[in-house]
Amino acid sequence: MSLRNPLARAKGLGSAKDGTSHWWHQRLSAIALLLLTPWFVILMVGLLGDDLATVRATLSQPLTAILMTAFVLSLFWHARLGLQVVIEDYLHGGTELLMQVIVKFAFALAAIASLLAIGRLYFLA
Amino acid sequence: MATPKRPLSPFMLGSYYRFQLTSLSSLLHRATGVALAIGSLVFAGWLAAAAAGEGAFSAYSAVLASLPGKAALFVFSACLVYHLLNGIRHLAWDAGHGYEIPKAYASGYAVFALTIVFTAVLWYVGLTAGGAA
Lengths: 125, 133
Fold this sequence. Notes:
heterodimer, A: 125 residues, mainly alpha, B: 133 residues, 76% helix
C-alpha cells in the first residue's frame, strides 16, 4: 500500500525520476574530462602566441579534431549539468526558471558553435 | 504560496560557522566549477574566432594577451587545476574511498598544494616557452 496522497500521484508530484541519470552523466563527463583535460592544457600551452596558420594547422589534424570534439562535448555537457544544480540550490521561482533556460540555451549554442568551428577547420584544411 | 523571508544557509558562514578544510574545499569546487563554466564559453569564442578568420582571431588573441585577459586566464587555469584535482577526490569518494576524516584532510591538503604547484608550472612553461602569449 502506498502512503502517498492519491492527488500527488495523479499530478505527477514527487521525484522527477531522473536524479540518477543526472548524477551518472555528471560523473561520466567528469571521467572524460579527467582524461582529456591534461591533453587540452598541453595543447593550448603549446599554441600560446602562435599565429592563426599554426593554430589552424594544429586543430585540423585528425586526432586533434577528434579529441577536441570529445573535449568540447564533455565540457559543455558537464558545465550544463553542474550549473543546473547550482541554480536549483541558490535560485528560486521565476529567476530560477529564467536562469535554467538561459544556461541550457547558452551551453547548447556554445557546443554548436564549437563543433561548427572544429568542423570548419577540419574540413577546409 | 507564501514565501517567508527565512535566512538561507550562507548567513551562517563566517560569524556562526567555522570553516573546515573539508567544507571549504567543497565550496571551492562549486565556485571554481561556475568560473570554469564561464571560461568554457570564452574557449568556445576562441574556437569560433580561429574558424572565422585573421581579423577575428587577432582581435580575440589581443584581448586574451592584454593584462585583464591574462589575469582572467590565470584565474581560469588555477580554477581548472583545482577543479580537476578535487574532482579526482570526488570520484574517489563516489567509489567509496577516502571517507575517513584523516584521509579526507590529507587529500584536501594534497589538492591545495598540488593546485599551487601545477598552476605555477603551467605559467612558468607558458611564459617562458610560449612567449608573451
